[in-house]
Amino acid sequence: MRATKRANLLVAAQADGLKTTSIGRWALDKYRLVSLYSRLFSTGMKNKWLNRVYIDLCAGSGLSQIEGTGQLYYGSPLLALSVPDPFNRYIFCERDKDSLHALRKRVQRLFAATDVRFVPGHYDDRINEVAKEIPRADSVLTFCFIDPFDLSIKFSTIQRLSSRRVDFLLVLMLNMDANRNVKHYANVTNRKIDEFLGLPGWRKEWQEEEKKGTSFPEFLAETFSKQMESLGYLHVPFHRMKLIRSDANLPLYHLALFSKHERAYKYWDEVLTYSTNQTSFQFNS
Asked: CATH no. for residue 247?
């Protein structure tokens, strides 16, 4: 399938009296990338897998409001629900009760006929419940988007889902969180990076890499990618992770795709090319 015109990847919305999620304007770049990849994934795989599942572990309220303005846009859950070839099932996890309530109401109003499952609570605590909502049929392919506010995602959470055929797109807070708090996280009493990497002995490796001039974000990215390799995923080097910058051009976070199949990376390369050139994209349906 070829799109010859720029797709309307962002959807502006109107206030509905329900809770919204506050975002910086730079988050719209992330939403464009996630929206386009969801389209490529869902359409490209529709004739290859009987069941396609979309998971959002940090679903939010469904509507995002740019800080300091009244501008509202669909968040990642509603963007995924809006793809031309919808997934067979959607699984949304959200720990904030008001946000989850707002998301339920919006889904019921806008996508009432779609198979959507809601899992309340923090994704690390409720990952077994999330996994149970993935159909047990043989032909199931899942795309999981994880967008935490910091590096709080535990590697054990990803490991729990990886036993199924799941591709991951993760927001890695390598600059906003890790780089700003490197001394804090290097303290042996802090276990945040231990759990993120699934490696309690990472500090010794970091000391060696720091002597070589390796930055903390690059060290974490490469180490995390090696951990994903141990689960059967293809290696993703730091330079292939998409950097998102602030309005002031400061590095904020990276988007990293992990799959066990090269086709996913071809889609992702198309997404990055399209988002830069804003021309056209092509893929096989």
From this structure: 3.40.50.150
Whether pTM > 0.70 for this model: the answer is: yes
Q: Which residues pair with 171 in a beta bridge?
A: 255
Domain annotation covers residue 115: yes
Pairing of strands 72-74, 51-56: unpaired
CA torsion 216→27→119→151, rounded to 10°?
A: 10
Residue 281 lies in a domain: no
In a domain, 202, yes or no: yes
pLDDT tens-digit series, residues 52-83:
999 999 999 999 999 989 899 999 999 999 99
Distance CA 203, CA 26 (A): 32
Angle at 163 between CA 46 and CA 203, to 5 degrees: 120
274: in domain: no
Q: How far apart are CA 146 and CA 59, in angstroms?
A: 8
Domain hosting residue 56, numbered range: 12-269
Residue with tokens 């066990």: 260
Reported confidence tier of residue 9, pLDDT bands at 50, 70, 90: low
Number of domains the chain is built from: 1
pLDDT digits (tens, 9 = 90+) for 88-114: 999 999 999 999 999 999 999 999 999
CB 197 within 8 A of CB 227: yes
pLDDT per residue as tens digits for the range 111-157: 999 999 999 999 999 999 999 999 987 899 999 999 998 998 999 99
| Spatial CB neighbours of 239, under 8 Å, sequence gap ≥ 6 | none
